[in-house]
Design goal:
The complex is a heterodimer of chains A (92) and B (48).
Chain A (H helix, E strand, L loop, with lengths): L9 E3 L3 E6 L2 E6 L4 E5 L2 H9 L6 H7 L7 H13 L3 E3 L4
Antiparallel strand pairs in A: 1-5, 2-3, 3-4
Chain B lengths: L25 H10 E5 L8
The chains are: A alpha+beta (92), B alpha+beta (48).
Chain lengths: 92, 48
């Protein structure tokens, strides 16, 4: 798994569709034909707010992720980045 | 997203992402595994 830059700007990949579920959400990537299960509603909040937040760190803060849980959420985001569910956001 | 993808919720994960685990605490790995699970639907053409 690659290192994840928590202070960079990220976004949901344009080819990814999000379906909220009771357990969190189901992500489907139309390009890679992969499914990812977000098994935490808070992680869904993080993913959904990536686009409007300046960094993944601030998206986590907005979702109420505290310092003790931040490493686990960082690794979860890294996994989503590896599978191209989220991607780096470049300035317009 | 096609509604038929919800059928896949009942399927077990067939792939787990590889990773460099040398510098990661086991409890962090477990927590990350609990937060995200991935599967590929390649080879499932015709199922839906």
């Amino acid at each position: 798994m690659t290192d994840f830059d928590l202070d960079a700007a990220w976004q949901l990949h344009p080819q990814v569709s999000v379906r909220p579920e009771r357990f969190g959400a189901l992500l489907y990537h139309f390009g890679t034909r992969r499914l990812s299960f977000l098994k935490s509603p808070a992680l869904l909040t993080v993913v959904q707010s990536l686009e409007s937040e300046p960094s993944a760190r601030s998206a986590c803060a907005r979702a109420g992720i505290g310092a003790p849980d931040l490493p686990a959420y960082t690794r979860a985001l890294a996994r989503l980045a590896d599978s191209q569910m989220i991607c780096g956001r470049t300035a317009a | 997203m096609p509604d038929s993808t919800t059928d896949l919720l009942e399927r077990p994960a067939d792939e787990v992402a590889d990773g460099d685990v040398a510098d990661v605490q086991p409890d962090e790995l477990v927590a990350a595994d609990l937060l995200v699970e991935e599967i590929s639907i390649d080879g499932m053409c015709g199922v839906y």
